[in-house]
Amino acid sequence: MNVYVLQVINGVGIGMIYFLLAVGLSIVFGLLRFVNFAHGAFYLLGAYACYALMQQGLGFWGTLVLAPILVGAAAWLAERLLLRRMYDLPHEFHILFTLGLAWAIQELVILYWGPVGVNVPPPDLLKGVVMWGSFIYPKYRLFLIAFSALLALAIWLLLERTRLGSIVRAGSEQADMVMLLRINVYRVFGLVFALGAATAGLAGALAAPLRGVEPFMGVEALAVAFVVVVVGGMGSFSGALIGGLLVGIVQSIMSTLWPQGASLMIYIAMALVLLLRPDGLMGRSQ
């Protein structure tokens, strides 16, 4: 099979991880305009939770359930005890505080697990490759695409077909109007913040068998998440999906054409999108 076709398929798999990483960040900003620079740390915690749980004897499938729950619970506590006090402050305080929180989490991870990265094996069921004529592709990457697509559908149903989703979408448009309806936007935000962190933690657990686990992966993830959100449009589910796929495919194809500049190209793509559509591909004018 043509190498570029394989790279596009690889890009779809990577892009779906980027979508899971970025969708919570996008919705959280859309709901209360809260800038969360600790989002990459939740991705980091999800990857290390996957590693730690498997070291304790829990199978990979169990970690996909338990790791995001643990990360979401930690995020809910952080929002409840710390971040909720900062909603009405300027964005500069959001950035400084969440950056400090991210660095604290990173240093705690280094203290406990050390500065050297570790490997997480895929489950036995997903080892090896799928062969279909000339199509040869790793089983785990195919699982990643299919599983992430199902998760994207589940998140879309949550946002479009439930009362919580209606409140989140309305709050992202006019939070003040929602509060006039006697809906506690801050309580909803706490739940959405935890769900967003849980999806980032799940993205970290899914990425662990692909790239391994190391203490500085959260910094890289945060940068990519912001690129995806800016490309797709703040507060947009479809924007996070399209942005994640676009960034993943660009990065994957460029790793063949220009390996040294693969990461650079995603920022160039972001700049081009901003020149043509300053609010992102699916963003609304503010």
Walk me through the topology.
Layout (H helix, E strand, L loop, with lengths): L2 H30 L6 H17 L4 H22 L9 H23 L15 E4 L2 E4 H23 L1 H11 L1 H6 L4 H27 L5 H16 L4 H21 L4 H15 L10
Antiparallel strand pairs: 1-2
Subcellular location: Cell membrane
GO molecular function: transmembrane transporter activity
Keywords: Amino-acid transport, Cell membrane, Membrane, Transmembrane, Transmembrane helix, Transport
Overview of the molecule:
The chain is built from 11 helices and 2 strands; from the N terminus they run ααααββααααααα. It has 286 residues and is mostly helical. The chain has one domain (15-217). It has a two-stranded antiparallel sheet. The model has no long low-confidence stretch (mean pLDDT 88).
Tags for this model:
two-stranded antiparallel ribbon, transmembrane, 11 helices, membrane, globular, 286 residues, mainly alpha
Quick one: biggest sheet?
2 strands, antiparallel
What number of structural domains do the residues give? 1
Q: Tell me, what's the shape?
A: globular
The H-and-E topology, N to C, reads as HHHHEEHHHHHHH
Q: What class, by secondary structure content? A: mainly alpha
Output mean pLDDT. 88
Q: What share of the residues does DSSP label as strand, in percent?
A: under 5%
**Helix percent band:** over 70%
The number of helical segments is: 11
Strand order of the largest sheet: 1-2
Q: pLDDT under 50 segments (min length 5)?
A: none
N- to C-terminal separation? 45 Å
Rounded Rg: 19 Å
The total of beta strands comes to 2
